[in-house]
Design goal:
The complex is a heterodimer of chains A (about 150) and B (about 140).
Chain A (H helix, E strand, L loop, with lengths): L5 H11 L4 H15 L16 H6 L1 H18 L5 H15 L5 H18 L5 H19 L4
Helix pairs in contact in A: 1-7, 2-4, 2-6, 5-7, 6-7
Chain B lengths: L4 H14 L3 H15 L17 H19 L4 H4 L1 H11 L4 H17 L6 H19 L4
Helix pairs in contact in B: 1-7, 2-3, 2-6, 6-7
């Protein structure tokens, strides 16, 4: 797993402070389901996912997206111990949810894209690099308890 | 995997906007690639990779021009990129995993520069389009 410099931590934390977790959550999860439609396999109970607009407007998608990003926000406060922070969630994703860890990578990259849309020029190559470390670290921590 | 009519329309109309900033988009994409995925620099030991380098700009232009060729020939990307496909298979031999990394960095560059255009539908179309381009470029690998 990557090592976060003080600069990485500052970059990640300051950008996150400006993110509306509810909006970004819905946007991120929604786009995952639209751009990679096979990921809908985990969400049979979510109702109408039949078109991009149906997905993006779906209240269950928004609610769940918020849940996911809130958890990510917790991780940002513990960048030096992502494994510890996500230990239980890792077991959950393996044993109960049966989620292929590849999906964590996909979601991470969708989040990076959403941040780019939101922050534009401010989302410089340097800022992106810190965030790629972040999402890679989360993906790795979430798969660390898989067996 | 082939592009629907709607997806082609999205790509072509966005390309019209993109082409006006093609060179800087190419440079920015490569900067993002080398910073986020330093291992990709191993393909460029002969380059000066500092931001602003002439080589970086020239190469970025090349990459985006090729994407443009694919967009302008979206009904037959295979034919449009035959030479490039051979180049990647027999000469460059870039490991296929890197096409996903470059595609992602191009998407992020487009998202940052054209936020209003980069709807969920456009995001999906571009991801798919770049995936098709990547497939064409690796189809002669073995």
């Amino acid at each position: 797993m990557g090592h976060f410099t003080e600069e990485d931590k500052a970059t990640i934390t300051s950008l996150w402070g400006k993110v509306n977790v509810e909006d970004a959550g819905g946007e991120t999860l929604g786009r995952l389901l639209v751009v990679y439609p096979w990921t809908q396999r985990f969400f049979d109970s979510f109702g109408n996912l039949s078109s991009a607009s149906a997905v993006m407007g779906n209240p269950k998608v928004k609610a769940h997206g918020k849940k996911v990003l809130t958890s990510l926000g917790d991780a940002i406060k513990n960048l030096d111990d992502l494994k510890g922070t996500f230990a239980q969630l890792s077991e959950l994703h393996c044993d109960k949810l049966h989620v292929d860890p590849e999906n964590f990578r996909l979601l991470g990259n969708v989040l990076v894209t959403v941040l780019a849309i939101h922050f534009g020029k401010e989302f410089t190559p340097e800022v992106q690099a810190s965030w790629q470390k972040m999402v890679a670290g989360v993906a790795s921590a979430l798969s660390s308890r898989y067996h | 995997m082939s592009l629907t009519k709607t997806e082609r329309t999205i790509i072509v109309s966005m390309w019209a906007k993109i082409s006006t900033q093609a060179d800087t988009i190419g440079t920015e994409t490569l900067e993002r690639l080398f910073l986020s995925y330093p291992q990709t620099k191993t393909y460029f030991p002969h380059f000066d990779l500092h931001p602003g380098s002439a080589q970086l700009r020239a190469h970025g232009s090349k990459v985006v021009a090729a994407v443009g060729d694919a967009a302008k020939n979206i009904d037959n990307i295979g034919a449009a990129l035959t030479k490039l496909s051979e180049l990647h298979a027999y000469v460059l031999r870039v490991d296929p995993v890197n096409f996903k990394l470059l595609s992602h960095c191009l998407l992020v560059t487009l998202a940052a520069r054209f936020p209003a255009d980069f709807t969920a539908e456009a995001h999906a179309a571009w991801d798919k389009f770049l995936s098709v381009v990547s497939s064409v470029l690796t189809e002669k690998y073995r």
